[in-house]
Write a structure and sequence with these properties.
Largest sheet: 3 strands, antiparallel
Strand order of the largest sheet: 1-3-2
Order of helices and strands: EHHEEH
Distance between the termini: 21 Å
Structural class: alpha+beta
Length: about 70
């Protein structure tokens, strides 16, 4: 079963002007290469919420703590 966590990008990368920045791209790429991460992608800002990094992961291979630490 897949679980997911979402992180506000402005909190993760406060100096990044928008989600098209290479830092966001590198973060997604690094997470997607990690064993146990099934998909890391950006959820665009909407309805007053900031853009978020969404990480889908296998909880049998990675704990919540490990995902947070990787992000």
């Amino acid at each position: 079963m897949t679980e997911k966590l979402q992180f506000d990008i402005p909190l993760l990368l406060p100096e990044v002007p928008d989600v098209a920045d290479r830092c966001v791209e590198r973060l997604q790429s690094t997470l997607n290469a990690r064993d146990g991460v099934e998909n890391a992608h950006v959820v665009e800002a909407e309805n007053g919420l900031p853009a978020r990094l969404c990480v889908h992961f296998d909880p049998d291979r990675l704990s919540l703590v490990q995902v947070r630490a990787a992000v």
